[in-house]
Specification:
The structure holds two protein chains of two kinds. By secondary structure, chain A is an all-alpha fold. Chain A is 70% helix and 0% strand. The radius of gyration of chain A is 23 Å and the shape is globular. Among the domains of chain B are: 87 residues, Up-down Bundle (Four Helix Bundle (Hemerythrin (Met), subunit A)), CATH 1.20.120.1200; 45 residues. The chains are: A mainly alpha, B mainly alpha.
């Protein structure tokens, strides 16, 4: 792309700079618009669950312009800093959370090859950066100079540091099955249909999927794990002293990290940018369009990006649904959940998946039907995918 | 005019790393120190990303920057008797720290300038930014004994001598860590048993 732009701009330097800016603006725009959409979705979904209507007026039908109204209101609010606060850290804390939450998206591809920065260790990078959001929360809690804030921040630190372990362990299970921590490779492996998704690879990845989702909800502080901001006990936890725009920045970080863990879930378990059925490939085959044509590839990637975003949004919608359905846990229950259930479960899934891979390196049916069946399967598709297909059929 | 972005970001990250490291030293507040330490370590991870070492950069973020969170929490929990903790450093400690720091700096500078390509400024000026190469795969293979970077200059690939993997050092380190964990758990248990045997301190004497 840089070479293409350089033909028109006359300078590789200018083209490179422009292309980097385009990527940055694109990532920021997609995430910001998603976040605005999620605030509206949260209000609508909570309203429907509580048998209300939610916003209905702003922007005509469904109140779809409500995020804009909310944003304008928050911009006009007074920016308060408590007298007891550490002013420098109090101001810096929201941006620390915000940067951590948004940097994640740089390494997340939305379709095969559509990624701002293709990192070889992408999944690891995402997990590492997503864990940094807690920094801003701890700083905010301490810098506010309020006991509620400090309580919330300490809870957040204990919760996130504990849940990172089972989160990473359950994320390693599909990584191990795929044999790569490059998100593009993991995504491409799951092509073909929902039976090729890693969640259906074996019983252990299936269980790891639920462990991952539980830990992901806990690591982004969503109810039933929203102890750091439990409004019935701690006023608003670490956000007690924040108002106006800085409060908004914290909220943007929270929704962005919800989207990030949801995207990672889609990558690792739910087939990345591949739909439940290989529709685009099917249409190409029926109409006789060569799949290798640049335009055909572009359309397939566009469809893949759409599928990917929809799956990620569905993950966030599920988190919102959980929030308005389940009661909040106590702090000891949160830690019990992590240390007594999620951690042993994820460790067991890790060992189980390793044993499974050792026992059935090419899938279940190849072992049962002999080497001939595996050879005919592998003739049409890459070996890993063929093994997975055979395995999924063997389970049904 | 063309800005050399690689140099620009190198200087930005390097100045951030050094500046915030100095801020850690000259700050009095323990939480601010931790904040500056995080920024300094984050800038170092940025340098790693700039050098094309993605895995190392992510590792730096996860272990050092993430670990500082725990440090921060414990720092606050263990030292915060008043709202704002000021760390007062005496003159003798300053002198001692300056001597140790200067010695370490001397060793590091000596090591850095003994790298042959760095001694010629012409090579540095013409050096291209490193191309993005996969780093995680070769590392994972090296862990189990397949040293990709040594494969090329080894015609007899079937012999495994000289291709020792990182698995043994890794295992030794992890056994060390387990020993440390068990030791920490043992110490914590022993102290609890002591305090259970001794009469509990009256509530009004508890430090605020």
């Amino acid at each position: 792309m840089v070479d293409f732009l350089a033909q028109y701009l006359g300078s590789v330097w200018l083209a490179g700079t422009l292309w980097a800016l385009v990527q940055v603006v694109l990532v920021l725009t997609v995430v910001m618009i998603s976040v605005a959409f999620f605030t509206w979705l949260e209000r609508k979904e909570s309203a429907r669950i509580q048998d209300r209507l939610g916003p209905t007026r702003v922007g005509g039908r469904f109140g779809w312009l409500q995020p804009v109204a909310d944003g304008l209101k928050l911009l006009m609010k007074e920016d308060l800093i408590p007298a007891a606060a550490d002013r420098v850290l109090f101001r810096a804390a929201p941006y620390v959370s915000f940067c951590a939450a948004f940097t994640v998206f740089v390494a997340l591809p939305v379709a095969s090859g559509w990624v701002a920065l293709r990192l070889d260790a992408g999944v690891f990078f995402v997990l590492a950066v997503a864990g940094l959001e807690v920094l801003g929360v701890v700083l905010a809690g301490y810098a506010s100079g309020s006991k509620w804030s400090l309580f919330g921040a300490m809870r957040e630190a204990a919760q996130v540091v504990s849940y990172e372990v089972p989160l990473a362990l359950s994320a390693v299970v599909p990584v191990m099955v795929a044999g790569s921590i490059d998100p593009v490779t993991i995504g491409d492996l799951q092509a073909g249909g929902f039976w090729n998704w890693l969640v259906f690879h074996d019983p252990f990845t299936f269980a790891a999927f639920f462990v991952y989702f539980t830990c992901a909800v806990a690591s982004v502080n969503r109810a039933p794990f929203d102890l750091p901001e439990a409004e019935s006990e701690l006023v608003a936890g670490f956000m007690t002293e924040y108002s106006g725009f800085r409060w908004r920045v914290f909220f943007m970080a929270e929704y962005a990290s919800m989207l990030a863990v949801s995207f990672l879930l889609v990558f690792l378990f739910l087939g990345a940018w591949h739909g439940p059925l290989p529709l685009v490939a099917g249409v190409y085959a029926v109409l006789g369009i060569p799949a290798g044509h640049p335009l055909a590839i572009f359309v397939a990637q566009l469809a893949g990006a759409g599928v990917f975003l929809v799956k990620g949004y569905l993950g966030v919608a599920t988190m919102i649904w959980l929030r308005w359905t389940l009661p909040r846990l106590r702090i000891d229950q949160v830690m019990t959940m992590c240390l007594k259930y999620c951690l042993p479960l994820s460790a067991a899934m890790f060992l189980g998946a390793a044993v499974w891979l050792y026992a059935f390196p090419a899938g279940v049916t190849s072992r049962l039907l002999g080497p001939g069946a595996a050879a005919t399967e592998a003739a049409g598709s890459p070996p890993a995918v063929a093994g997975r297909t055979a395995l999924a059929e063997g389970e049904r | 005019m063309a800005v050399h972005w690689h140099s620009f970001f190198f200087w930005l990250m390097a100045i951030m790393a050094c500046g915030f490291a100095l801020a850690v030293v000259f700050s009095n507040n323990i939480v601010r120190m931790a904040f500056y330490l995080i920024l300094s370590l984050g800038a170092v991870s940025g340098l790693f990303f700039l050098a094309g070492a993605d895995f190392l950069g992510a590792m730096q973020l996860m272990i050092y920057v993430g670990g500082t969170v725990v440090l921060l929490v414990f720092g606050v929990m263990l030292t915060a008797r008043r709202p704002w903790v000021d760390m007062q450093t005496s003159g003798g400690q300053w002198v001692l720290a300056a001597v140790v720091g200067a010695l370490l700096l001397a060793v590091l500078l000596q090591t850095a300038f003994s790298v042959p390509p760095w001694q010629s400024s012409a090579a540095a000026a013409g050096a291209l930014p490193p191309a993005a190469e996969p780093t995680a795969g070769p590392l994972g293979l090296a862990m189990v004994g397949v040293r990709v970077e040594r494969m090329a200059d080894r015609p007899a690939a079937e012999s495994s001598s000289g291709l020792a993997g990182y698995l043994l050092p890794f295992e030794i380190v992890s056994v060390h860590l387990v020993v440390v964990l068990v030791g920490a758990a043992y110490l914590a248990r022993a102290r609890r048993r002591l305090s259970a045997a001794a009469p509990a301190r009256p509530l009004e004497e508890a430090p605020q």
